[in-house]
Design goal:
Blueprint: H1 2-17, E1 19-23, H2 31-42, E2 75-78, E3 86-97, E4 100-101, E5 106-108, H3 109-115, H4 118-124, E6 128-134, H5 142-146, H6 151-161, E7 164-167, E8 174-180, E9 183-185, E10 192-194, H7 198-201, H8 208-217, E11 225-229, H9 237-250, E12 260-265, E13 269-273, E14 276-277, E15 281-291
Antiparallel strand pairs: 1-12, 2-13, 3-12, 3-15, 4-14, 5-13, 6-8, 6-11, 7-8, 9-10
Helix pairs in contact: 3-9
Keywords: Antibiotic biosynthesis, Dioxygenase, Iron, Oxidoreductase
InterPro entries: AlphaKG_dependent_hydroxylases (IPR050411), TauD-like_sf (IPR042098), TauD/TfdA-like (IPR003819)
Organism: Micromonospora antibiotica
């Protein structure tokens, strides 16, 4: 009933700001209640996302917990699942327990693009090639990501996604490469938006101690994740430094409290996660998918 009377106002806020905060008693008290809100705000919802852990008491497979990541470090800004072919237009976060810290900052990526220098814009205009090695001692396993033990099923899925792949000589490690847009025209405003996951994939964005530890084990091109320009060339470290500086300056934070939900336009706003301590329990859902090849570009 609440959504029936307020959906137009939510859509207006999303179109203007790229995000909207919803507060209400009992809004996130149980998964079923949150799932109904998520389906109304972001449906149709993605199911069984292998990148996120599912919530045990969600029979629909549409409600997840946030990306597992060290609670002592900041998870940098990213537009969800933009390494894949289908991008969720909307994401919803719901708070059950706040912990100490752990805010979810968001950044308007049309504003980020507007601040970028011409050199960075030229690099990003080529798109991004995301490179992942699955089945290593670190990172995810290809069986988990593709939910199969059959390499043939994996290869067919890669073909559907427009993903190139290669197996190592033992068939245990799968390397995938996915070329995706980095800059699109935001459907709501018509302005260029840097919609990508570069700061999740580029080695320069790693904390220095994490980078140094990986470097003891692997060459940079062997890291579990990496990314290049869409044309195959390197993304200079200076571009990553510029992005981190701009996002740090422009990020906006709405404090968490129980029964607060935030709906985010994933094509326009990236999100991050601050370090935290204590018990933090958030629910997450994503939906309204769009094929990234069909999005307008500058």
């Amino acid at each position: 009933m609440w959504w029936h009377h307020n959906s137009a106002a939510v859509a207006e806020h999303l179109g203007r700001d790229g995000a909207v905060v919803i507060d209400g008693d009992g809004l996130c008290q149980d998964v079923a209640t949150f799932q109904r809100l998520a389906a109304a705000a972001c449906g149709p919802l993605a199911r069984d996302n292998p990148e996120h852990a599912s919530i045990d008491d969600d029979p629909t497979g549409t409600i997840n917990s946030p990306t597992p990541f060290s609670r002592t470090r900041k998870l940098l800004w990213h537009n969800e699942n933009t390494f894949a072919r289908l991008w969720p237009r909307r994401i919803i976060f719901g708070c059950q327990e706040i912990g100490d810290g752990g805010q979810t900052p968001t950044v308007d990526m049309t504003a980020v693009y507007a601040r970028l220098g011409s050199a960075a814009r030229d690099v990003l205009a080529t798109g991004v090639t995301y490179v992942r090695r699955l089945g290593m001692d670190l990172g995810l396993d290809w069986r988990q990501v593709y939910r199969t033990t059959d390499p043939t099923v994996v290869e067919r899925a890669c073909e559907r996604e427009g993903t190139t792949w290669r197996w190592d000589e033992h068939g245990g490690i799968l390397t995938t490469e996915q070329r995706r847009p980095a800059v699109i025209l935001d459907p709501a405003t018509g302005r260029p938006s840097l919609t990508a996951q570069i700061l999740h994939w580029h080695p320069r964005a790693l904390d220095q101690d994490v980078h140094d530890a990986l470097r003891l084990l692997y060459e940079p091109h062997e890291f579990p994740k990496g990314c290049r320009r869409g044309d195959g060339g390197p993304i200079p470290d200076a571009v990553i430094d510029e992005l981190v500086e701009i996002c740090t300056d422009l990020e906006e934070v709405v404090p968490w409290k129980p029964d607060r939900a935030i709906v985010v336009d994933n094509l326009r706003r990236s999100h991050a996660r601050d370090p935290y301590s204590g018990v933090r329990r958030l629910l997450v859902a994503a939906g309204d998918p769009v094929d990234c090849t069909e999005l307008a570009r500058p």
